[in-house]
Amino acid sequence: MGIITALLILSFLVFFHELGHFTAARFFGVQVDVFSIGFGKKLLSKQIGKTEWSFSLIPLGGYVKMKGQDDSDPTLISYDEDSYNSKKPWQRIIILLAGPFANFLLAFLLYLAISSIGVPKLLPTVGDINTTNPAYEAGIQIGDKIININGQSIHYWEDIGKAIERSPSSVHITLLREHQYVEVTVIPELQNTKNMFQEVIKRPIIGIQPDINSTGIVHYGLEEGITYAYEQTQRASMLILKSLQKLIAGLVPMDQLGGVVSIVDVTAKASGVGIVSLLFFTALISVNLGVLNLLPIPALDGGHIIFNLYEMITNKVPNEEIMYKLTLFGWGLLLSIMLLGLYNDINRLIG
Predict the structure, then answer these.
(1) Of 164, 195, 217, which residue is a domain's last?
(2) From the candidates 18, 183, 224, 231, which is the catalytic residue?
(3) Residue range of the domain that includes 260
(4) Which residue of 20, 89, 155, 337 pairs with 99 in a disulfide if CB–CB is 3.0 to 4.6 A?
């Protein structure tokens, strides 16, 4: 059931992306010949107006085929009034941007829904202490609730690290222990730790861990929810961009790259945990689709945007032969990345 849910979610995200392209194309009067969810053999199709709406055999993507645009052969061009090629470069760029924008919008709406349902957060309750670190020496005990650090109120566990990093030399902490307030002063130690990319970084550490069973649910109003949704969408986008940067620079091993099997697997697991976890992961995948499609690779939206920017700046149409070769290169690069992700997925399953 989890796998079916994952495939349905992937199909929905692709549909939303392509719907962005479709809506912008129709707004500028471009005829859309095909709107397909999936690739390969068509399982279901229905002609509505001039557009064929279809579900295809491989539900791992989709496409909108506009009149005068064919990624498999960029030389197939039409200059009819209702074709993609007859539109001005800035109009084509808007059509191309509409797909990724739809993914960012969907992620924003999902985060907004999460803010209304309730965001689970760890409470600042100490669940474990390293006996060789400063917190133990200062007298902090398991079960203590951290109320205040250097005059800053602490509401959730995530606030603790931020407060310590603001004053890494000396930390004055107010604790709640068995209905009594306790004051302690801790001198953090600068230690080597690993971030999410497994890079070694130095951070001020006092040596405490959260009580994972001590959680709270935060409900946001509309205004706060909009701010939360915007910040989460922005944070997810920056995280994906930073991950790509680390991957290209070789700071993240290539064997960490996951493919569609990993996406389906994690989505299926998230669906089994609960609706909030599923919404979180769906929003992250939606942002991922938006960011990746903006990469300047010829076969992606970002690559087509570069071609149109070139035309806007130079007032010259890009050479068809060069576009064709670059598009083939882009497809080859994408296929190589997909195969590497699939190879890594299979290795993880076997391992």
Answers:
(1) 217
(2) 18
(3) 2-13+88-118+255-350
(4) 20
